[in-house]
Amino acid sequence: MRNREISVGDVFRMQHFEKPNLGGEYIQKHCLPYKKSAIIVPYRNRKHHLHTFLNYMHYFLQQQHISYRIFIVEQNDDYSFNRAKLLNVGALEAVNQNYTCLIFSDVDLLPLNTGNIYACSRLPRHMCSAIDIFRFNLPYEGLFGGVISIRSDQFKLVNGMSNEYLGWGGEDDDFYRRLKHHNITPYRFSPQVSKYTMLTHNKEKPSEDRFEKLERASDRQQIDGLTSLSYNHIVKLKSLYTHILVK
């Protein structure tokens, strides 16, 4: 597969793709059965973004000739958005379906280069280091959010992500510290390959105590994450995705 850059304008055009199986699963005929990626998207109240994301990402992923399933993990309560908890839930549900490669993606981030492969390698990868709203520059070296890839065994090793961050910010930095604590250093592809466009949206309410929680991040690693995860959920198979409704 040759790297191909996609224009931002093409992102919003109706793309043609092969219809996936119920639940948003696509099986590449020439892909080994264990080489499949779970695309896990934390979600709430972004219907327009979700439509654009699904239409574009099925097209994009099929250009890469990989097997995948898209999981939309929706928070269904009145609390502040808990992005990391939704990712933990999505990871466990994907692992239960024998997915060993986890791709965490925000619903408003869309890749612009087909060489940015949605698969896992030896180390976790920060996939969106060059986003258009930041003029395709990396805001800071330790940034590890937006879109990342990680093997399920590595995610389990660090006890997943913290469930304590309500609102925007902090959970990605906490997760990065967990990886570094276990001597796991994420990497990036070149900025040219890692280009993304961000869909316009209103900013989420910031997590008010995120800095205090970050200061205590190392103390909570073993007790805050997959081991402390508690949730009720309903799973429905939609035509383009697996919908996990979480309370």
From TrEMBL:
<dbReference type="Pfam" id="PF13733">
    <property type="entry name" value="Glyco_transf_7N"/>
</dbReference>
<dbReference type="GO" id="GO:0005794">
    <property type="term" value="C:Golgi apparatus"/>
</dbReference>
<keyword id="KW-0325">Glycoprotein</keyword>
<comment type="pathway">
    <text>Protein modification; protein glycosylation.</text>
</comment>
<feature type="domain" description="Galactosyltransferase N-terminal">
    <location>
        <begin position="18"/>
        <end position="121"/>
    </location>
</feature>
<dbReference type="GO" id="GO:0016020">
    <property type="term" value="C:membrane"/>
</dbReference>
<comment type="similarity">
    <text>Belongs to the glycosyltransferase 7 family.</text>
</comment>
<dbReference type="GO" id="GO:0006688">
    <property type="term" value="P:glycosphingolipid biosynthetic process"/>
</dbReference>
<keyword id="KW-0328">Glycosyltransferase</keyword>
<keyword id="KW-0808">Transferase</keyword>
<dbReference type="InterPro" id="IPR029044">
    <property type="entry name" value="Nucleotide-diphossugar_trans"/>
</dbReference>
<dbReference type="GO" id="GO:0033842">
    <property type="term" value="F:N-acetyl-beta-glucosaminyl-derivative 4-beta-N-acetylgalactosaminyltransferase activity"/>
</dbReference>
<keyword id="KW-1133">Transmembrane helix</keyword>
<dbReference type="GO" id="GO:0008378">
    <property type="term" value="F:galactosyltransferase activity"/>
</dbReference>
<dbReference type="Pfam" id="PF02709">
    <property type="entry name" value="Glyco_transf_7C"/>
</dbReference>
<dbReference type="InterPro" id="IPR027995">
    <property type="entry name" value="Galactosyl_T_N"/>
</dbReference>
<dbReference type="GO" id="GO:0005975">
    <property type="term" value="P:carbohydrate metabolic process"/>
</dbReference>
<keyword id="KW-0472">Membrane</keyword>
<feature type="domain" description="Galactosyltransferase C-terminal">
    <location>
        <begin position="125"/>
        <end position="201"/>
    </location>
</feature>
<dbReference type="InterPro" id="IPR003859">
    <property type="entry name" value="Galactosyl_T"/>
</dbReference>
<protein>
    <submittedName>
        <fullName>N-terminal domain of galactosyltransferase</fullName>
    </submittedName>
</protein>
<dbReference type="InterPro" id="IPR027791">
    <property type="entry name" value="Galactosyl_T_C"/>
</dbReference>
<keyword id="KW-0812">Transmembrane</keyword>
<keyword id="KW-0735">Signal-anchor</keyword>
